[in-house]
Amino acid sequence: MIRFEITKLFFDKKAVRDKVDAGTRRVLSKFGAFVRRTARSSIRKRKKTSSPGSPPSSHTGLLKKFIFFGYDPRKDSVVIGPVRLTQKGRGEAPSLLEYGGTTKVEHRGKRKRAKVRPRPFMGPAFEKEQPKLPAMWRDSVR
After folding, report:
1. How does 87-115 read in b/e, with b if 16+ C-beta sit within 10 Å?
2. What is the pLDDT of residues 92-142, one digit of tens each?
3. From CA 20, how far away is CA 14, in angstroms rounded?
4. For residue 102, which of 86, 87, 118, 88 has the smallest C-alpha distance?
5. Which residue ranges make up each domain of the chain?
6. Residue 71, CB half-sphere, CA atoms under 13 Å: how many?
7. How many CB atoms lie within 10 A of CB 79?
8. What pTM did the predictor assign?
């Protein structure tokens, strides 16, 4: 009489799901780190203002220092970008630099509106690293 053990033919859904989740977390975290590194390296620390359309200059180094990334397990995504630093109740500088817009500035004791032209740094960093993403997914589930 021939006996077969069929237990090896079934797969454990939870084990497979756990491996896929671990691979996703690993790939997205690595991608977030690459985008952060590219964004940080595009920002030069100098006193001179950058030209519109090119990455901003960081006069104090804070913008460059406070770019972070984090994996969000609820959404299975990674969030990459500068922390919203507040100065006098406003924290609009990173988005203002990325997209442009108007803001109020104090000049010689008077408040004036200033127009800021876009100086994108996160979008170009994301676009530069995006072609590497398919290679990161390859063999991500072990």
Report:
1. eeeeeebbebbbeeeeeeeeeeeeeeeee
2. 888 889 999 998 888 888 999 989 999 999 999 999 999 999 999 998 887
3. 10
4. 118
5. 15-84+121-137
6. 14
7. 12
8. 0.82
